[in-house]
Amino acid sequence: MLAIVLALASAIGYGGSDFAAGLASRSAPVIQITLLASAVSGVFVAAALPFAASPGPSAAALAWGFAAGIGGTLGAFALYLGFRHAAFSVAGPLSAVAAAGFSVLAGLLYGERPTALALAGIVLALPAIVGVSASAAAEAEADAPAQEAAAVGGLGRPVAGVVYGLVAGAFFALLFIGLDRAGSGSGLWPVAAAAAGELAAALVAAVAVRSFRLCGGRARLLAVITGAAGAAGTILFFVATHHGFLAITAVLTSLYPAVTIVLARVMLGERLTALRLGGLVTAGACVTLIALGGAG
Q: How large is the average pLDDT for residues 246-267?
């Protein structure tokens, strides 16, 4: 049960991070937001490190953690490219489902055997993820500026959305799998390595586009919230996946778009569509089945 609670708490962290990042992106470039958020995330993890760090982390644990961090950042960039070259409603849902699906496959290959009820919850989670992420993506597409809509209309190819969505999902799965394979014997050092990997990838992207300016005003505060909430989500997932199966904790964490929807409803007054409500209800049923079946 602890793994389930921690995985859902991780989803809250990631959902809050995405919500803050989405608001920040309305007034500042994505690279600037990512760079500041990655730096804040590193500081947040460094502050937590002394409370749960082992005397000497293994090289393998650090390598898995660093790879996980790079995967998280590259997944985000792949998703942004998917949004740029295809419809939002193609790349967004596919990336979330692919991240959960690849993680489940990895867990099964590593020998995990969830109970029948838990497996039913996992299967039910996939349409739930589609429901909550597709509705969020559709909202973003509807709110896109006219020139961006025209660009998507000209470049919007379903194949491009599928490819970028799958690539993003694979990288997000690397984040989950890397944190799982890093093991629990090195304390929070693998999470610190992940934060370093995220910052390294963000710095490389900033160099590539020559954008080192920090976003200012409200966007800066939102970027800080993005980094802090994302770091909390990563720490919680890391702990969760070492108290339960990767196949279960990754699926529950992948329900984070539901948190973004709830925050948008509470903070911005956005309407809950039938698709959103269906996704939220299905997500609730998924969590119930997994809770009854156990997390491993």
A: 87
